[in-house]
Amino acid sequence: MTTRLYSHPIYLEHLTPPGHPERPDRLRAIARVLEDEAFAALDRVEAPKGDEATILYAHPESHVQKVRAAIPQEGIRAIDADTVASPKSWVAALTAIGAANAAVDDVFSGKADNVFVASRPPGHHAEKTTAMGFCLFNNAAIAARYAQKKHGAERVAIVDWDVHHGNGTQDIFWDDPSVLYCSTHQMPLYPGTGAKSETGAGNIVNAPLAPQTGSDIFREAMRSRVFSAIDDFAPDLIIISAGFDAHHRDPLAEINLTEDDFDWATGELMDRATRHSGNRLVSLLEGGYDLEGLSFSVAAHVKRLMKG
Ligand SMILES: [Zn+2]
């Protein structure tokens, strides 16, 4: 397998206030574990700046203007209680989109079998018209639509195993049966959406997990709800909204997964990508707030992507 890794120093310049869980040190911790020689074969590429026009694949122009207007000249400005912008946030967000779209290009051109994007700010809480939950633009949603417009993908599956429900991705694809959105997440928990009864146009599959859920129930939920939906859908591309805050060490939630669970889920999704999608799999970092839980989980995830 050829596995490509996108990152960029600009991601460290999207600043959040002291004590904020979504902080630049998350990417520093990931970079440190990926220095290990086990990752020598990774194809490391500096993320390109994204094309602003592709934001409109998932958000209206009014949202783009609203985010642009929220970027401060200096310091850190609050957009809501937990979502902020700093002077470099615009370029960082655009470079997160650029990496997600480039990853799609890579798996369709055959430059890579799969790609992991280590970027911030994350994206899955960003709704069509609302930046929230540390997210400004929905990277996964933009990349899915980019695959459809640029590479003729008919069906794209987004699998979101971040411990929070990806309300933004659900909102964007609510009435779009060409994109399957599957999410495992703790419930109740922020942002409050993600009940089983939320099914959109039949393309939304939510698998809520009770607090204290561990490996067995998580795996059963993936098997019975997520993998079966993917097999029925037969996507041309699988995108993972890869948050690692369902790790037992994470301070923001109470799900008790380990690195082994992320390794397992990655392998299972790679099997589906082989079966349905010509191996095409793109993984985008979302949450994960305990530096050890995050970095060890990313290591297990990327190791599995490289191994096949
Ligand atoms: Zn999360």
UniProtKB/TrEMBL annotation:
InterPro entries: HDACs, His_deacetylse_dom, His_deacetylse_dom_sf, Ureohydrolase_dom_sf. It comes from the Bacteria. GO terms for molecular function: histone deacetylase activity. One of its GO terms (biological process) is epigenetic regulation of gene expression. Residues 20-304 form the Histone deacetylase domain. Belongs to the histone deacetylase family. This is Histone deacetylase family protein. The lineage of its organism: Bacteria, Pseudomonadati, Pseudomonadota, Alphaproteobacteria, Hyphomicrobiales.
